[in-house]
Specification:
The structure is a homodimer of 212-residue chains. Chain A has 212 residues and is an all-alpha fold. Helix content of chain A is 69%, strand content 0%. Chain A has eleven helices and no strands. The structure holds a DNA duplex (30 and 30 nucleotides).
DNA sequence: AGAGTATTGAACAACAATGTTCAATACTTT
DNA sequence: AAAGTATTGAACATTGTTGTTCAATACTCT
């Protein structure tokens, strides 16, 4: 019984699943180190003992929840990109996936916004595939910004997306508007010409594919 | 002795000043609700009793530190803008003030980055003056984005600045590079033409004026 | 030097959260 | 229906934090 707990959703028993769901919401609302076992149990609709049966500490739980979220989102986006090769189009879609999901799953969104900067596990969501796509876009002359700006461009894009998610979570904008406008602004910053930036940012957004 | 504590720096006795400085750093490092009185006392180089002499709770302290930071930065930027009327130039300067300061005062930067999204007091740093400057820029036809995008543009700009500050804090970029590149990208997104965006973003950055 | 004020550091009770244990109960599975 | 497994909820000692008190000490004015 000393082995590390499994991270994949499939390997989770029902109680653990409920605990993870409750944890996502509590962490998002109160902060990473602010969740105690009793309230977690209550939020998950589970006895305090069950928490201790299933996990060792809330700190570890946080890591698990974060890296699970990362893996899941990464896979789903990757799957959706099977059909899309244009880097600019990928960018426009990826940006809006995040913003729409913040609307559809606000707890997910709040969690992501709160910890995206500070949690290593979440970081790869934009230092991984997005960075490659930006490079590809440069290689294919799709973008015009100087190559030395790549890291800053990546930061700008991810920061913009996070801020747009906040806008949506707080009800100031619809996901559609914030999503398309953000995509358009970013594409313009990268050097895509105005008309095309606008067109790309309004392409119909497919559903985020399920995994398995 | 029941009156609320004064917020202005001038009205702070030396011990309180040290406590605030230590608090900034601890909050930035560990999170808002994670700082306990004993470690705060130790970090401030002060006895635990002194903490209780000077303040009522660390929660209140957090609010004080945040709103003080906001007020101070706001005043200093406002003072610097006395001489600058062009909205685009103001934007280019304002953006780089934040990014440079993250380099010069990393604890300040970490605090700001960590709480800028979630803390109301800090929010006005970009929903206040920057919003007005953006509107002015539109009215003066300095920018070309549609007026309905104003809120999203504001989000994009602030999110980009935060992300650039992270880049600098982690040593991936110099403040100069991250600052100018971020300003350039944002100006391009707003519709400033490439050459001018570049020029504006490399204008010499004056020192952040002192207050009083 | 002397009055007024703030800091110090130790002590204390009250509380909240932790980590463990365990017998009773509930649920799967075959 | 019986065996195997997980959940339940209560109990408990332990720890860390809080908020308060206070006499001794240090600091700052005029």
């Amino acid at each position: 019984m000393e082995a590390a707990k499994e991270l994949s959703k499939e390997a989770m028993n029902p109680a653990l699943k409920r605990i993870h769901r409750a944890a996502l919401s509590l962490f998002a609302e109160k902060g990473a180190g602010q969740v105690n076992v009793s309230e977690l149990a209550q939020a998950a609709g589970v006895a305090r003992g069950t928490i201790y049966n299933n996990l060792n500490s809330t700190d570890l739980l946080f890591e698990q929840v974060a890296s699970q979220l990362e893996a899941e989102m990464h896979q789903r986006i990757a799957k959706s990109f099977d059909l899309v090769t244009d880097p600019a189009q990928r960018l426009s879609i990826g940006i809006r996936f995040f913003i729409r999901r913040a609307h559809e799953e606000p707890e997910w969104g709040r969690f992501f916004v709160r910890f995206a900067f500070s949690t290593l596990a979440l970081r790869s969501l934009w230092t991984g595939q997005p960075a490659l796509d930006l490079k590809n876009g440069l290689d294919q002359q799709r973008y015009t910004f100087p190559r030395e700006q790549l890291a800053t461009v990546l930061a700008m894009a991810s920061g913009s997306v996070l801020a747009a998610m906040v806008l949506v979570l707080e009800g100031h904008k619809t996901w559609r508007e914030a999503g398309s406008d953000t995509a358009e602004l970013i594409l313009k910053a990268l050097g895509i010409e105005n008309a095309e930036a606008r067109a790309l940012s309004r392409l119909e957004l497919p559903p985020l594919p399920a995994i398995d």
